[in-house]
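PROTEIN FOLDING TASK:
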Amino acid sequence: MIFIIFCGSQYLSGNPRDQEDPYIKLGQLTPAELPSFSYQIAAGMAYLSSIGIVHRDLACRNVLVDADKALKITDFGMSRETEDIYVQKSKGRVPYKWMAIESIIAREFTSASDVWSFGITLWEIETIGENLAKVKSKALIINIVSIYFYQVPT
């Protein structure tokens, strides 16, 4: 069972629909806060992994920040309880830009694929929200698949 705590604030990426400046409402950030954000997310994800939950959609847009800049991981709509590997059988929409290669290729999700998403989330934090919208999902997938299946010439 997962309990959701009310967090009367905003998403780490501001308003997910605000493409202009999603971080504007966070106020002035100090360099010391960015590693703190990373640590808080890592601690939350470690907890989820310890109880057998694969989140599958970790990104700044799914992290809430309260007035004290304490972070809470949210949006468990794609999460699954699993002891090993969760294989997605449906062809529903997925957040390709945050997905590990094995998740893109074979739709396999584990705590390790959540670690990949955490890496992309770290990139979002450290670049203060560099807009991933500039990266086109289709081109990303084509490049990853072509590299993944690349054969070394003999």
